[in-house]
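Attaching the record inline, Q. Sequence:
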Amino acid sequence: MSTTVHAHAAFEARGALQPFEYELPELSGDQVDIAVEHCGICHSDLSMLDNDWGGSRYPLVPGHEVTGRIIAVGPAVTHLKPGDAVGLGWHAGSCLHCGQCMSGDHNLCRQAEATIVRRHGGFADRVRARAAFVCALPAGLDAASAGPLFCGGITVFNPIVEFGVKPTDRVGVVGIGGLGHLALQFLRHWGCEVTAFTSSESKHAEAQALGAHHAVNSRDPDALKALAGQFDFLLVTVNVSLDWPRYLSLLGPRGRLHVVGAVLEPMSVPVFSLMGGQKSVSSSPVGSPQRIRTMLDFCARHGIRPQVETYPMAEVNTALQRLRDGQARYRIVLSNPA
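Structure, as predicted:
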């Protein structure tokens, strides 16, 4: 027996989303269906809607920061049951047998299945995924605001763990938006000395309230010059090109510049800017299901939550335009009626 899903889809690049229905076949194997209660809007949704990365297929139902409740489980699912409060992020499946998956790096699987790539996502009343990629929400985590943790949150949490950032490290976060405002909270509770780099003077006080010890105007060359050699780790969350040699100059020996913003232009990095101090440049995608679970527990323990604005799912186009205009402080979440 098939199930009708009521969703919102774009039918062309940059087109407005419209009501859309599609059929899901009967659940099988290790699949689960989630009744979508809330779904964050990520900049990646805009990139897919606009076909910025190529390969978008229409009709396209965005949405990969889902929180809701399990409403059906496949016959092989034993760790989740109807009624469980859960979340779903960028990935909805992987092969589960390659070397990366067997090592716990499901997010690096070459056959990883993205929730909104060649399938329909969470701007809907229901979404389907493999059970291994659906994470139970820990007690104390606010489901209404937790959706952005499943993409924006894990994107900045993953490299903190992956590259062994220490509580004694001096860390800078470049760009205080949907990703950066979460990175500040994570790093402050991690124990680091945290500096926020932002081009918006109006965000300095907010950045410090979110966890930054210091806030710096990223457009002030004198302010940046004064910080040369002071950082162990710089986390770049913006999706535009920067003066990369200048930011590399802020790193101390063995420092790392790590980029999680989807910058489309090539990076120009002189080798000598790395060689002398044995510095590194890197990037990463989201994290594995287990890394997401670790992040959720960390958030519940320390009271970390995204700062969100909420819109009804029916007002999705208004919400998307607010994100396009750069007005969101700091994430937008769509809500289905109870």
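The two ends are 25 Å apart (CA to CA). The chain has a mean pLDDT of 97.

More tomorrow.
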